[in-house]
Amino acid sequence: MNRSIAFLAALGLAFALGCGSDEAQQAAEQATAAAQEMAEDAAAAAQEAADATQEAAQAAADSATEAAGDMMADGVAATCRTLAEQGAWGDALDVCRKAHEANPDDMALEHAYQQAQAAAK
């Protein structure tokens, strides 16, 4: 893009040297305006690319955070199930509470949490 701007400026200067003074000034102004417009277009395109990159990076970060949360919830649920199978209700109470909060529709986790609550009383 910078080569195009330099080329237009050089072209305008060369044209200006071959013309009369009024024509030279007009050609130089046109070349300058064209170069400035190209520079503005390039800056706008660069900003759009930067914005798109930032949005993509945020989406990737959000996706990674969600995946990590899902993995952690799955690990807590598995630990709750294991402790419930072992009948280790004292150890299961907090783990099963967290698992139930992460998966409130999982009836097995709710039951394990209720059993751990009853055993803790």
What's the N-to-C terminus distance?
A: 75 Å
Shape: rod-shaped
Pick out the low-confidence regions: none
Summarize the biggest pleated sheet.
Answer: none
Mean model confidence by pLDDT: 80
Helix content: over 70%
Question: How large is the radius of gyration?
Answer: 34 Å
Strand content: under 5%
How many alpha or pi helices? 4
What is the chain-wise order of helices and strands? HHHH
Number of strands: 0
How does the helix and strand content classify structurally? mainly alpha
Report a brief summary of the structure.
The chain has 4 helices and no strands.
Walk me through this protein's architecture.
By secondary structure, the protein is an all-alpha fold. 92% of the residues lie in helices and 0% in strands. Helix 2 crosses helix 4. The longest helix is centred in the middle third of the chain and has 66 residues. It is rod-shaped, with a radius of gyration of 34 Å. The N and C termini lie far apart (75 Å). 14% of the residues are buried. The mean pLDDT is 80.
